[in-house]
């Protein structure tokens, strides 16, 4: 079990506390809505995690089916959705791997995955293309004609302009654009903390000592972050 797998299996509360401080300017939803409005759509989400996207989209969608391979992470999302009063009222959660979704073919207008597929580059260094292709195939399968596939992934935490954190991720993003025909854009999704001490505390377990120590050294209460968005429309591709 690697660093991130351990977090997703055992540290959902710490993860939720950290991401709750992210995108404090609210840039994600408007950027996604420019690609495809969510109002009265049927959405399938992969890699739901603690529910960052599903909770954001639930007020707009007709239905959302939110899936994650980690029951530990998904339990937090499910609790949040229950508190919102939307669970069971068009919003459902279920444990599922990205490559085998328990959803009918052509049953969604939007299939979305945030901060999920790119982990395959680290977890499956020899076969990440096969792993990600399997997930993309599932996303395409569940889309109706004219449906939109959306992916969100990191383009650098601690950076003000897009900077893929690893060479492997840079290769992945080129592959999506050059081989899969994805369009792309990027936005800032900065973190905002009550204090540098809080920032270091919230981020150290996930990003490591170097970034946390920088937050303390530079006395940061806003940590810059870039996020990439990739999308593909079913009717516009022969894949």
What is the SS-derived class? alpha/beta
Number of domains: 1
* N-to-C order of helices and strands: HHHEHEHEEHHEHEEHHEE
Biggest sheet features:
7 strands, mixed
What would the principal axes of the Cα set say about the shape? Answer: globular
**Secondary structure: helix percent:** 40-55%
This entry's quaternary arrangement is single chain
End-to-end Cα distance: 34 Å
Q: Using the CA coordinates, give the radius of gyration.
A: 17 Å
CATH architecture: 3-Layer(aba) Sandwich
Estimated share of beta-strand residues: 15-25%
- Average pLDDT taken over every residue: 97
Give the low-pLDDT segments.
none
Strand order of the largest sheet: 3-2-1-4-5-9-6
CATH C-level name:
Alpha Beta
CATH topology: Rossmann fold
CATH superfamily: Vaccinia Virus protein VP39
Number of strands: 9
Write the SSE topology.
Blueprint: H1 3-10, H2 12-19, H3 28-35, E1 42-46, H4 52-57, E2 63-68, H5 71-84, E3 91-95, E4 108-114, H6 119-123, H7 128-142, E5 143-157, H8 167-178, E6 183-188, E7 191-192, H9 196-207, H10 209-217, E8 222-223, E9 225-233
Helix pairs in contact: 2-9, 9-10
Characterization of the model:
The protein is α/β, with parallel strands linked by helices and 239 residues long. Helices cover 41% and strands 24% of the residues. It is built from 10 helices and 9 strands. β1, α4 and β2 form a beta-alpha-beta unit. α2 packs across α9. It is globular and about 50 Å long. The mean pLDDT is 97.
Give a quick rundown of the structure:
The chain is an alpha/beta fold and 239 residues long. The chain has helices spanning 3-10, 12-19, 28-35, 52-57, 71-84, 119-123, 128-142, 167-178, 196-207, 209-217, and strands spanning 42-46, 63-68, 91-95, 108-114, 143-157, 183-188, 191-192, 222-223, 225-233.
């Amino acid at each position: 079990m690697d660093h991130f797998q351990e977090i997703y299996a055992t540290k959902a509360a710490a993860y939720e506390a950290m991401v709750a401080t992210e995108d404090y300017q609210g840039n994600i939803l408007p950027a996604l809505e420019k690609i495809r409005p969510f109002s009265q759509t049927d959405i399938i989400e992969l890699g739901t995690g603690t529910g960052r996207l599903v909770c954001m989209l639930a007020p707009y969608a007709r239905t959302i089916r939110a899936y994650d391979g980690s029951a530990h992470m998904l339990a937090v999302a499910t609790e949040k959705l229950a508190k919102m009063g939307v669970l069971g009222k068009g919003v459902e959660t279920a444990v599922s791997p990205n490559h085998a979704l328990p959803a009918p073919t052509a049953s969604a207008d939007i299939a979305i995955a945030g901060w999920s597929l790119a982990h395959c580059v680290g977890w499956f260094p020899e076969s990440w293309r096969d792993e990600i292709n399997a997930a993309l195939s599932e996303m395409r399968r569940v889309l109706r004609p004219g449906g939109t596939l959306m992916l969100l992934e990191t383009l650098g935490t601690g950076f003000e302009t897009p900077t893929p954190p690893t060479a492997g991720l840079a290769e992945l993003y080129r592959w999506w654009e050059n081989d899969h025909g994805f369009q792309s854009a990027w936005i800032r999704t900065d973190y905002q903390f009550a204090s540098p001490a809080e920032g270091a505390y919230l981020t150290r377990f996930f990003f490591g000592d170097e970034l946390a120590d920088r937050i303390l050294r530079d006395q940061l209460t806003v940590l810059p972050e870039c996020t990439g968005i990739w999308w593909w429309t079913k009717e516009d591709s022969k894949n």
